[in-house]
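Record Cytochrome Caa3 oxidase, 314 aa.
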Amino acid sequence: MNIQRWLKRLSFASMAGMFLILLMGALVTKTESGRGCGDDWPLCNGKFVPAYTIESLIEYSHRFVVGVVGMILLATTILVVLYSKRKDAKWYVGGAMVFTVLQAILGAMAVVWPQSGPVLALHFGFSLLSFAFTMLLYLVYTKFGEAMHLGDGTRLTKGVRIAIWGILIYSYVVVYLGAYVRHSQSTGGCIGWPLCNGQVIPELSGATGIVFMHRVAAAVLGVAILVLFLVVRMQAHTDSAIYRATRLSLVLIILQILSGGFVTLAMGYDIYLLASMLHALLISCLFGILCYLGITSLHAAEGKVQAYAAPRLP
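=>
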């Protein structure tokens, strides 16, 4: 048996499963199916097979997928601990296990005992961290794993490396605010986009204040990633993993901001659910890439940097 091949396969299955859990969790929230199984857990309304209602099927299928992915992740953990030679892989799979357990506990608590918006928002945040750890684990066994382990020869100043980690941490705050908007049922606080209720700065109270705070936070994140890209392209070669990850982060944050506008404009239409799922998908990808960028930057060589001019378009 080729152990490395199985490590890669199971790591990919764990990553794909965590990504599916994220999307299904967003679907549960957006369709208000969280109470589809009543106050029972792990059963659904006292039954192993739930009644045929849309809400119960969505909620119970989410639970089922979490269980299956949890078993896949457990098998991956055992294989990584026993056979992987990469210490960082063991850290990544350990982190994925910890946050998977935490998000499962929060999910069960939310069913049995009604939770507040801030606590429910953590459920999505823990799921996102689980996905990020499984993504890093999978990348260990791909061609991108070498840069995470030894670097790719890129030199970055200490200030840039600190900025990368600062943006990564701040992006999690933005994600949490977005989850809080959903779980506090504040989505309709701002009508219209990019203006909020027809104003540049609306009255900052209630749902309007929550949504506007999230919009401002997302805009600040977009500016920060843009500035980071402009700095990194002067210090990193265009073929380096760090430059590519920064460029992809810029593309994703632009799409994320636009998808936020799409969500707002789609309210009241059938396409609203699709817009919301797209919004969740993009932020998950962005956070994962920023995590990869952060890990890779740790191995960027210190010292005097060599400026690289960005290639000019013909």
